[in-house]
Amino acid sequence: MEGGKLIIFSAPSGSGKTTLVRHLLKQPELNLAFSVSVTSRPKREHEIEGEHYYFISVEEFKKHIKQGDFLEWEEVYRDNFYGTLNSEVERLWAQGKHVIFDIDVVGGLRIKRKYPEQTLAVFVKPPSVDELKIRLKKRSTESDDKINMRVAKASVEMATAPQFDCIIKNYDLDAALDEAHRLVGDFLGVAKQ
Predict the structure, then answer these.
(1) Stated pTM of the model
(2) pLDDT tens for each residue of 7-32
(3) DSSP character string of 19-70
(4) Which of 97, 99, 163, 181 is in the most buried spot, having the most CB atoms within 10 Å?
(5) Which stretch of DSSP H or E encloses residue 101?
(6) From CA 167, how far away is CA 53, in angstroms rounded?
(7) Measuring CA to CA, how many Å separate 40 from each of 9, 87, 133?
(8) Tell me, what DSSP letter sits at residue 126?
(9) How remote is the C-alpha of 149 from its chain's centroid?
């Protein structure tokens, strides 16, 4: 695979990475396209196939693993697989776009290791684990057990932050949005408009 650049945003759930990625996708000068991940988890009520994720069965996911179709993949929770198909990145590069990912820390670091020169890996750091829990509860998309699992996982994920190219502290959303735009623009050699 070769083509444009790869921009990775990773963080614990509730850190604000999705908000930052959505903002960057609206900046035409950055020429970004979103890499839609594949997952074996059930579709949530508000999610749209092909926009939020490609939803497939555990069996289909395992078939793709065996065929070597993934740029990266991980079993995040039991039978909840997430991954990035090589074909998705190739499709976006064929459109002349740079690819941006909203992805877990393990997947983000795997891509960075495979394409160190082509990739900017950004870790989004929340104000605190307590704030994460508050943000996840406000979403009202998951049970308390799932939220507690995500919060427990967050501590492990936060420890990976130094392995990323840069860290954005998402304590103030406007400042984080500006910093994300500056970092990505600098990496791509594009001035902010």
Answers:
(1) 0.86
(2) 999 988 778 898 999 999 999 999 99
(3) HHHHHHHT-GGG-EEE-PEEE-SPPPTT--BTTTEEE--HHHHHHHHHTT-E
(4) 99
(5) strand 98-102
(6) 25
(7) 21, 18, 24
(8) P
(9) 19
